[in-house]
Protein backbone atom coordinates (compact mmCIF):
# COMPACT_ATOMS: atom_id res chain seq x y z
CA UNK A 1 0.00 0.00 0.00
CA UNK A 2 1.32 3.42 -0.97
CA UNK A 3 1.06 5.66 2.09
CA UNK A 4 1.66 9.42 2.22
CA UNK A 5 2.08 11.30 5.50
CA UNK A 6 1.42 15.02 5.80
CA UNK A 7 2.18 17.11 8.87
CA UNK A 8 -0.49 19.83 8.85
CA UNK A 9 0.72 21.73 11.90
CA UNK A 10 0.06 25.43 11.28
CA UNK A 11 -0.84 24.82 7.63
CA UNK A 12 -3.64 26.77 5.92
CA UNK A 13 -6.40 24.56 4.53
CA UNK A 14 -5.75 25.52 0.89
CA UNK A 15 -2.18 24.18 0.58
CA UNK A 16 -3.18 21.21 2.75
CA UNK A 17 -5.96 20.23 0.36
CA UNK A 18 -3.65 20.80 -2.59
CA UNK A 19 -1.21 18.33 -1.06
CA UNK A 20 -3.99 15.80 -0.50
CA UNK A 21 -5.14 16.08 -4.10
CA UNK A 22 -1.59 15.76 -5.38
CA UNK A 23 -1.09 12.62 -3.32
CA UNK A 24 -4.28 11.08 -4.70
CA UNK A 25 -3.27 11.98 -8.25
CA UNK A 26 0.10 10.32 -7.60
CA UNK A 27 -1.58 7.05 -6.68
CA UNK A 28 -1.64 7.21 -2.88
CA UNK A 29 -3.87 4.55 -1.34
CA UNK A 30 -3.61 5.91 2.19
CA UNK A 31 -3.01 9.47 3.37
CA UNK A 32 -2.22 10.15 7.03
CA UNK A 33 -2.81 13.72 8.19
CA UNK A 34 -1.15 14.63 11.48
CA UNK A 35 -1.72 17.70 13.68
CA UNK A 36 -4.99 18.70 12.05
CA UNK A 37 -6.56 21.66 13.83
CA UNK A 38 -9.57 23.27 12.13
CA UNK A 39 -8.52 22.97 8.48
CA UNK A 40 -11.66 22.99 6.33
CA UNK A 41 -12.79 21.04 3.27
CA UNK A 42 -10.58 17.99 3.83
CA UNK A 43 -11.49 15.39 1.21
CA UNK A 44 -13.67 17.82 -0.74
CA UNK A 45 -14.75 16.35 -4.07
CA UNK A 46 -12.28 13.47 -3.87
CA UNK A 47 -13.06 10.29 -5.82
CA UNK A 48 -11.72 6.77 -5.78
CA UNK A 49 -10.86 4.37 -2.98
CA UNK A 50 -8.21 6.28 -1.08
CA UNK A 51 -8.21 6.04 2.72
CA UNK A 52 -7.60 9.25 4.68
CA UNK A 53 -6.61 9.12 8.35
CA UNK A 54 -7.14 12.40 10.18
CA UNK A 55 -5.33 12.81 13.50
CA UNK A 56 -6.81 15.88 15.14
CA UNK A 57 -9.93 18.00 14.74
CA UNK A 58 -10.89 18.81 11.13
CA UNK A 59 -12.78 22.00 10.32
CA UNK A 60 -16.10 22.45 8.57
CA UNK A 61 -17.37 20.53 5.55
CA UNK A 62 -15.18 17.47 5.98
CA UNK A 63 -15.79 15.23 2.96
CA UNK A 64 -18.02 17.73 1.15
CA UNK A 65 -18.98 16.37 -2.30
CA UNK A 66 -16.78 13.34 -1.62
CA UNK A 67 -17.49 10.32 -3.82
CA UNK A 68 -15.75 7.10 -2.81
CA UNK A 69 -12.95 7.60 -0.27
CA UNK A 70 -12.98 6.50 3.37
CA UNK A 71 -12.04 9.15 5.92
CA UNK A 72 -11.36 8.17 9.53
CA UNK A 73 -11.06 10.92 12.15
CA UNK A 74 -9.31 10.24 15.45
CA UNK A 75 -10.90 13.14 17.25
CA UNK A 76 -13.94 15.39 17.00
CA UNK A 77 -15.15 17.24 13.90
CA UNK A 78 -16.65 20.67 13.35
CA UNK A 79 -19.86 21.47 11.42
CA UNK A 80 -21.31 19.70 8.38
CA UNK A 81 -19.12 16.63 7.88
CA UNK A 82 -20.53 14.69 4.93
CA UNK A 83 -22.13 17.77 3.36
CA UNK A 84 -23.60 16.70 -0.02
CA UNK A 85 -21.46 13.57 0.11
CA UNK A 86 -22.17 11.18 -2.75
CA UNK A 87 -20.37 7.94 -1.87
CA UNK A 88 -17.79 6.62 0.58
CA UNK A 89 -17.58 6.70 4.37
CA UNK A 90 -16.75 9.09 7.20
CA UNK A 91 -15.91 7.54 10.59
CA UNK A 92 -15.53 10.03 13.43
CA UNK A 93 -14.15 8.74 16.75
CA UNK A 94 -15.66 11.58 18.74
CA UNK A 95 -18.47 14.11 18.39
CA UNK A 96 -19.39 16.48 15.56
CA UNK A 97 -21.08 19.87 15.25
CA UNK A 98 -24.23 21.06 13.51
CA UNK A 99 -25.66 20.00 10.15
CA UNK A 100 -23.89 16.64 10.02
CA UNK A 101 -24.64 14.93 6.67
CA UNK A 102 -26.30 18.09 5.31
CA UNK A 103 -27.90 17.22 1.94
CA UNK A 104 -26.01 13.92 1.89
CA UNK A 105 -27.05 11.78 -1.08
CA UNK A 106 -25.04 8.57 -0.65
CA UNK A 107 -22.45 6.81 1.49
CA UNK A 108 -22.18 6.48 5.27
CA UNK A 109 -21.36 8.84 8.13
CA UNK A 110 -20.68 7.17 11.49
CA UNK A 111 -20.29 9.35 14.60
CA UNK A 112 -19.18 7.56 17.77
CA UNK A 113 -20.56 10.12 20.23
CA UNK A 114 -22.91 13.09 19.76
CA UNK A 115 -23.86 15.61 17.09
CA UNK A 116 -25.26 19.13 17.20
CA UNK A 117 -28.36 20.66 15.64
CA UNK A 118 -30.01 19.81 12.30
CA UNK A 119 -28.20 16.52 11.74
CA UNK A 120 -29.28 14.88 8.50
CA UNK A 121 -31.02 18.01 7.25
CA UNK A 122 -32.30 17.51 3.69
CA UNK A 123 -30.69 14.12 3.19
CA UNK A 124 -31.93 12.71 -0.11
CA UNK A 125 -32.03 9.40 -1.93
CA UNK A 126 -32.11 8.14 -5.52
CA UNK A 127 -34.15 4.94 -5.63
CA UNK A 128 -32.17 2.18 -3.84
CA UNK A 129 -28.78 2.78 -5.46
CA UNK A 130 -27.94 5.98 -3.61
CA UNK A 131 -29.20 5.76 -0.01
CA UNK A 132 -27.28 7.87 2.50
CA UNK A 133 -26.85 6.60 6.06
CA UNK A 134 -26.07 8.62 9.18
CA UNK A 135 -25.51 6.73 12.46
CA UNK A 136 -25.02 8.59 15.74
CA UNK A 137 -23.75 6.55 18.67
CA UNK A 138 -24.80 9.09 21.31
CA UNK A 139 -27.51 11.71 20.86
CA UNK A 140 -28.48 14.59 18.58
CA UNK A 141 -29.88 18.06 19.22
CA UNK A 142 -33.00 19.70 17.80
CA UNK A 143 -34.32 19.34 14.25
CA UNK A 144 -32.74 15.98 13.52
CA UNK A 145 -33.70 14.94 9.98
CA UNK A 146 -35.28 18.31 9.15
CA UNK A 147 -36.71 18.41 5.59
CA UNK A 148 -35.36 14.89 5.09
CA UNK A 149 -36.14 13.50 1.63
CA UNK A 150 -34.52 10.06 1.79
CA UNK A 151 -32.00 7.80 3.48
CA UNK A 152 -31.61 6.57 7.05
CA UNK A 153 -30.74 8.37 10.27
CA UNK A 154 -30.09 6.02 13.20
CA UNK A 155 -29.51 7.24 16.78
CA UNK A 156 -28.36 4.64 19.31
CA UNK A 157 -28.15 6.73 22.49
CA UNK A 158 -25.19 4.81 23.91
CA UNK A 159 -24.60 5.85 27.52
CA UNK A 160 -27.78 7.97 27.59
CA UNK A 161 -30.95 7.53 29.64
CA UNK A 162 -32.86 8.48 26.48
CA UNK A 163 -31.44 8.56 22.97
CA UNK A 164 -33.29 11.81 22.13
CA UNK A 165 -34.57 14.59 24.38
CA UNK A 166 -34.55 17.55 21.95
CA UNK A 167 -37.57 18.69 19.92
CA UNK A 168 -38.25 19.01 16.21
CA UNK A 169 -37.36 15.47 15.14
CA UNK A 170 -38.18 15.06 11.46
CA UNK A 171 -39.63 18.54 11.03
CA UNK A 172 -40.80 18.76 7.41
CA UNK A 173 -39.71 15.20 6.61
CA UNK A 174 -41.13 13.94 3.32
CA UNK A 175 -38.94 10.89 2.64
CA UNK A 176 -36.55 8.49 4.33
CA UNK A 177 -36.67 7.33 7.94
CA UNK A 178 -35.31 8.22 11.36
CA UNK A 179 -34.82 5.30 13.75
CA UNK A 180 -34.13 6.04 17.40
CA UNK A 181 -33.30 3.53 20.10
CA UNK A 182 -35.98 3.28 22.78
CA UNK A 183 -39.15 5.30 23.13
CA UNK A 184 -39.55 8.81 21.74
CA UNK A 185 -41.99 11.20 23.39
CA UNK A 186 -44.66 12.53 21.04
CA UNK A 187 -43.90 16.16 21.85
CA UNK A 188 -40.39 15.75 20.40
CA UNK A 189 -41.74 15.17 16.87
CA UNK A 190 -41.57 18.02 14.38
CA UNK A 191 -44.28 19.14 11.96
CA UNK A 192 -45.02 16.46 9.38
CA UNK A 193 -43.33 13.62 11.30
CA UNK A 194 -45.10 10.48 12.48
CA UNK A 195 -44.11 7.50 14.63
CA UNK A 196 -44.43 3.97 13.25
CA UNK A 197 -44.11 0.59 14.94
CA UNK A 198 -40.63 -0.85 14.62
CA UNK A 199 -40.86 -4.45 13.45
CA UNK A 200 -38.65 -7.52 13.06
CA UNK A 201 -38.57 -6.73 9.36
CA UNK A 202 -37.22 -3.25 10.15
CA UNK A 203 -34.53 -4.79 12.36
CA UNK A 204 -33.52 -7.13 9.56
CA UNK A 205 -33.14 -4.13 7.24
CA UNK A 206 -30.93 -2.11 9.57
CA UNK A 207 -28.96 -4.97 11.15
CA UNK A 208 -26.10 -4.72 8.59
CA UNK A 209 -25.77 -1.01 9.36
CA UNK A 210 -25.69 -1.65 13.12
CA UNK A 211 -23.03 -4.32 12.66
CA UNK A 212 -20.97 -2.06 10.41
CA UNK A 213 -21.14 0.79 12.94
CA UNK A 214 -20.19 -1.47 15.86
CA UNK A 215 -17.27 -2.87 13.89
CA UNK A 216 -15.82 0.62 13.45
CA UNK A 217 -15.90 1.46 17.16
CA UNK A 218 -15.47 -1.88 18.88
CA UNK A 219 -19.02 -2.32 20.20
CA UNK A 220 -20.83 -5.62 20.50
CA UNK A 221 -23.70 -5.49 17.96
CA UNK A 222 -25.74 -8.03 19.94
CA UNK A 223 -26.57 -5.22 22.38
CA UNK A 224 -28.52 -3.38 19.66
CA UNK A 225 -30.08 -6.21 17.65
CA UNK A 226 -33.61 -6.14 19.03
CA UNK A 227 -36.82 -4.24 18.35
CA UNK A 228 -36.38 -1.59 21.06
CA UNK A 229 -36.52 1.27 18.55
CA UNK A 230 -38.91 3.97 17.37
CA UNK A 231 -39.24 4.53 13.64
CA UNK A 232 -40.15 8.02 12.46
CA UNK A 233 -41.18 8.88 8.93
CA UNK A 234 -43.26 11.34 6.95
CA UNK A 235 -46.95 11.66 7.79
CA UNK A 236 -47.38 12.98 4.25
CA UNK A 237 -45.28 13.52 1.14
CA UNK A 238 -46.33 17.20 1.33
CA UNK A 239 -46.09 18.19 5.00
CA UNK A 240 -46.53 21.92 4.35
CA UNK A 241 -49.24 21.75 1.67
CA UNK A 242 -51.65 23.74 3.85
CA UNK A 243 -49.15 26.61 4.10
CA UNK A 244 -49.50 27.51 0.43
CA UNK A 245 -52.34 29.09 -1.56
CA UNK A 246 -53.24 27.35 -4.81
CA UNK A 247 -55.38 28.97 -7.48
Automatic annotation (TrEMBL):
<dbReference type="InterPro" id="IPR012061">
    <property type="entry name" value="Glu_synth_lsu_3"/>
</dbReference>
<dbReference type="InterPro" id="IPR002489">
    <property type="entry name" value="Glu_synth_asu_C"/>
</dbReference>
<dbReference type="InterPro" id="IPR036485">
    <property type="entry name" value="Glu_synth_asu_C_sf"/>
</dbReference>
<protein>
    <submittedName>
        <fullName>Glutamate synthase GltB3 subunit</fullName>
    </submittedName>
</protein>
<dbReference type="GO" id="GO:0016491">
    <property type="term" value="F:oxidoreductase activity"/>
</dbReference>
<dbReference type="Pfam" id="PF01493">
    <property type="entry name" value="GXGXG"/>
</dbReference>
<feature type="domain" description="Glutamate synthase alpha subunit C-terminal">
    <location>
        <begin position="14"/>
        <end position="186"/>
    </location>
</feature>
<dbReference type="InterPro" id="IPR035710">
    <property type="entry name" value="Archaeal_gltB"/>
</dbReference>
Amino acid sequence: MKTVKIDARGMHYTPLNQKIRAAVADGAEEIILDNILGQRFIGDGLRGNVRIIVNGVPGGDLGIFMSGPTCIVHGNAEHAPGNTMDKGMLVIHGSAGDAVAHSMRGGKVFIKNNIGYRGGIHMKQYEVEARPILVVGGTAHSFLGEYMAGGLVLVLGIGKDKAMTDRGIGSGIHGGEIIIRGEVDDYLLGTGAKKFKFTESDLERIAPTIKNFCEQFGYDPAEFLDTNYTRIGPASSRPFASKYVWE
